[in-house]
Amino acid sequence: MILGHDxxxxxxxxxxxxxxxxxxxxxxxxDLDVYxxxxxxxxxxxxxxxxxxxxxxxxxxxxDSGTINxxxxxxxxxxxxxxxxxxxxxxxxxxxxxxxxxxxxxxxxRLDNLxxxxxxxxxxxxxxxxxxxxxxRKLSLLMSVMRPSKLLLLDEPTVGxxxxxxxxxxxxxxxxxxxxxxxxxxxxxxxxFFSKVILMKNGKIFKNVxxxxxxxxNQTIEQWYRYFNDEV
Length: 232
Description:
- It is built from nine helices and nine strands.
- By secondary structure, it is α/β, with parallel strands linked by helices.
- The strands form two sheets. A six-stranded mixed beta sheet has the order 5-6-7-3-8-9, sandwiched between helices. A three-stranded antiparallel beta sheet has the order 2-1-4, covered by helices on one side.
- The protein starts with 10 loop residues before the first strand and ends with a helix.
């Protein structure tokens, strides 16, 4: 089991009036507070600004205006699982993990146990290029959770996984501590796993709601999403 950090519900990210444009405006004034142990599902149609928001939090792109105050050390406390697998095809699985372990200062002798937890141990000497799509997603997951983090960002983590791998993924994620923000449309798991749902529309946060509040109105997350995302 991979554990998180503290038990205190403290603010770790504070975003105010965040704006970003490329050829056209993508973020039009985003306000968001993230606390430790939040489990946030970030929803919205393509082009609503979800991945741009991720990239700004990580520091992969620069904001046009607004503020992002981070109360964590991004190098030590932030982990990312991108939508595209950031893997090196001509490395073996164990070599890929050893490379990540050296970057994250994770003890090499922990890798066998981690691979067993995520059902990759049998493939440790296989080349990354030979893995199935689901196995590559598992490997990407393991690279992102091999160290404890205060914030884990996941961009469509189950894309390319078969149903068995998806079930395994969400059961495994239940062991992760810290705060998690996930871009996903796996609605069945949002109902079970997440504490908050954020809906982005037109470059802004249109709704920021506790999952329990949605359920208290006898709605599933999918019903809630379809209703509000279809509104003009």
